[in-house]
Structure formats: C-alpha cells, structure tokens
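Quick one, probably user error.
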C-alpha cells in the first residue's frame, strides 16, 4: 500500500483516532460483554468504551462518545431543502410507506465486515416521492442528532436498489447503539456513509463534505475502490 491507501499512514485517519481511544481504554474495553451491558450508559467512560466493544461482529461507533438517546415516539425525520413539499415523518409515517427489506454485507473502512445483516425500512425513492425534489436537487445531506456527524449521497447513489433508510435491523427495531430510530444503509459503500441517529435529510444542489470526508476520506466510498481501505 502507498501512503494514499494505507489508513495507518494517514495522520488524522479513523484508525489513528481509534488508536488514541484504545490506548487509554483497552483494559475496560475487554473487561467482557457483561460489563458493557451493565454499565450505566450515562457514564461517559462507558460511552467511550462503546467505540471499541464488539457486538456480534459489529463495532459500535460514535464520534463524541455519547450515543443520542432519542424518544422514538417524539422523533421526527425532517426532509427539506430543495423539495416541493418539506415534511416531517414520524416512525409511523415511515412505516406507512412501502416497506423495503434486504440482507446485505456491512463494511467499515477500517477493515471489519458483518455478513448477512437483515435491514428493513424504506427506499429513498419512496421517501422522496412524498416530498417531491425540485429539478435543482442533486444530493441528499444526512444530518445526525450526534453533532457534527453528517454525510451525503448523490441522488443517483441514494436511488441504488440496495440503499435505504433503515429502522429495523435483524428483525428487531434498530437499537440505540446502531442508530435508533433510523439510519442510512448503502452496502456498496463503506459504513461511514451510514449516518446513525438520523434527524434530517436536506436536498441540496451540490454534495457537502461529510464528517470523515473532512478528515480525508473519499466522498464516493465504494467498497474496495476508495482511499481508506482495499
Ligand atoms: N452518528 C454517527 N453515525 C455513524 C458513525 C458515527 O460515529 N456517528 N460512524 C460510522 C461508521 S465509520 C461506521 S463503520 C458505522 C458503524 O455502524 P455501527 O456503529 O452500527 O456498527 O456507523 C457510521 N455512522
Ligand atoms: Mo467505519
């Protein structure tokens, strides 16, 4: 690997960031799954630990160390920007849209993958039909309740047959660590495109830079073809 493709060589890459965390938290992180489950999530220490702990092959990531705790009953997903009819969707509103389901592999740019993940939710095409994007709209900006995490997809990418807004995972409601009430899923791209704890989708005319893209990762995060890995 050359410097452009080796995540270890990137001074501000995710691996360097996680390395910093791991240095201080290794003992806690590997104390075992029970300690994770029993730790009060209000402890900032356990929240940092959550960046490192495996959960069925998954690593649970936050950039702040604090997982947003969203009341699903009160949560609304705002879809606005370059649309005819800006709207706020409750979970019930989203469940009333045509239901999408798929099984796909999840890839993080740092090298771990989880096979056979069952997702349920809605396709972006069905969500966008409800708000009617203007002809000037070119991209979707996904904003997390975890500030300042965000990312984006072009309209074409969001309309990929296996891209979706997911509110179910492995046949259960999406859990808080995985981004409840809803997150973005696009299996053909690395996981950092999959914004968790989604609160807003803004239709824009040009793709803004996402959180990890601001730290040097590719905007087009195609698995196997982007700069973080592979
Ligand atoms: N809000 C938010 N979304 C996020 C992240 C994050 O730190 N914060 N990390 C991303 C990265 S790099 C990956 S690989 C996946 C990990 O998903 P998981 O935490 O459900 O395993 O979430 C993505 N979405
Ligand atoms: Mo990732």
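Nope, works fine. Designed sequence:
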């Amino acid at each position: 690997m050359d410097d452009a493709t080796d995540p270890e060589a990137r001074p501000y890459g995710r691996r360097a960031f996680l390395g910093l965390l791991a240095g201080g938290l290794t003992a806690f992180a590997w104390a075992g799954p029970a300690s994770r489950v029993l730790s009060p999530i209000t402890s900032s220490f356990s929240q940092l630990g959550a960046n490192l702990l495996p959960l069925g092959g998954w690593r649970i990531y936050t950039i702040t160390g604090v997982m947003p705790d969203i009341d699903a009953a009160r949560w609304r997903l705002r879809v606005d920007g370059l649309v005819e009819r800006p709207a706020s969707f409750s979970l019930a509103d989203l469940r009333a849209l045509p239901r999408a389901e798929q099984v796909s592999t999840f890839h993080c740019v740092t090298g771990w993958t989880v096979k056979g993940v069952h997702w349920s939710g809605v396709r972006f095409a069905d969500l966008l039909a409800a708000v009617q994007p203007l002809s000037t709209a070119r991209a979707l900006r996904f904003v997390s309740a975890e500030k300042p995490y965000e990312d984006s997809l072009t309209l074409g990418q969001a309309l990929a047959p296996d891209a979706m807004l997911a509110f179910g995972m492995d046949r259960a409601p999406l859990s808080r660590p995985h981004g409840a009430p809803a997150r973005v899923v696009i299996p053909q791209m690395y996981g950092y495109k999959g914004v968790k704890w989604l609160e807003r989708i803004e239709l824009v005319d040009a793709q803004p830079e996402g959180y990890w893209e601001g730290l040097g990762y590719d905007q087009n995060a195609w698995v196997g073809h982007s700069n973080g890995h592979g």
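The pocket of MTE (ligand 1) is lined by residues 58-63, 108, 144, 146, 149, 178-179, 191-192, 194-197 (CB under 6 Å).
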